[in-house]
Amino acid sequence: MFKILTYNNISVAGLERLPRDRYEVASEIQHPDAIMLRSFKLHGVPIADSVKCVGRAGAGVNNIPVADYSKRGIPVFNAPGANANAVKELTIAGMLLASRNICGAWDFARTLSGDDETISQVVEKGKKNFAGSELAGKTLGVLGLGAIGVRVANTALALGMKVIGFDPLLTVDSAWQLSSNVEKAASVDDLVTKADFLSLHVPLNDQTRHIINITRIGLMKRGAVLLNFSRAGIVDDSGVAAALDEGKLRAYVCDFPTASLLGRNGVILLPHIGASTEEAEDNCAVMVADQIRDYLENGNIRNSVNFPEVVMPRGEGFRLGITNENVPNMVGQISGALAEANLNILDLLNKSRGDYAYTLIDVGAEVPVATLEKIRTINGVLSARTL
Length: 387
Hints:
There is one protein chain. The chain has about 375 residues and is of the alpha/beta class. It has a seven-stranded parallel sheet, sandwiched between helices. Strands 2-1-3-4-5 form a five-stranded parallel sheet. About 35% of the residues lie in helices and about 20% in strands. The protein folds into three domains: about 110 residues, NAD(P)-binding Rossmann-like Domain (Rossmann fold, 3-Layer(aba) Sandwich), CATH 3.40.50; about 190 residues, NAD(P)-binding Rossmann-like Domain (Rossmann fold, 3-Layer(aba) Sandwich), CATH 3.40.50.720; about 80 residues, 2-Layer Sandwich (Alpha-Beta Plaits). α7 links the parallel β7 and β8.
């Protein structure tokens, strides 16, 4: 029986992927094998030695101390692309909100009073204050062409926009899905100079923190619109505030409210609802539950942010899963320990990612406890378990 500790409310659609006859799932549980969460912050929260993996029902993992878990040999799973459609739709809505001055017009209409004739007169007189522009024919710059960025780019094309994108880490899968009509920018600076609308879809890390700052905003077209449905730290709020005050930016649409942006003209703030749809929550929970189950039962790693993708079909024999530091002769030492126990290797798959590696091995007989303990004592081995 596997035990799953949950933080936050996890979608029932995801929890149903964990059979009750094999999984115990609860928000309070002793010695869990895995943790499932959404936005709960695990930084500073001690976790049991029994934890073998952590899964976040979402894309970003800033709320998880990934580096610490990596040192313990704990894969951290996420759900890339599971909420992509939800964020895409809100990004398109954000462009419409800004281009048509919908928020201001709505506020104006909500204050109307009087009879129909009076309201009609006030509307006809006031509507000129909310004139906007159309998206068709405008240029959208998309920074980050992952699951969300690709969908935003393709949808914008369908709306009649010209689209330019930049992503130095564009994957083959994303490239296949991206329309050939999306132009490639030479750099971030090249992208921002050409965009009427600039939409950000990159993860927050040391390379992307404040990637949009006062200097880059200065390169943008006067009256451009900036959209941030990525992470708060991607944009330097002080630079945005200065650009709005000076009239450089027409609007800033952001899903991450901060104190410096509250009540500021030209800012449209939303309460971090990019992935807040029933469909997205279901998709994320299902994907992460499946990944956790596959890892616990079969040792396979899919969509881990800190360990390599390792998927090996289950055949005959007994399976051993090992996380370790990416150092020379690790497979040799493990194979040697198995040979000493007279265990025949039926299948083996080893992959590395940065400083860490993972090995799946199928052997012809059950691995003795003493052999498993010997493997665990190999310098650089972080965890080892039989499945």
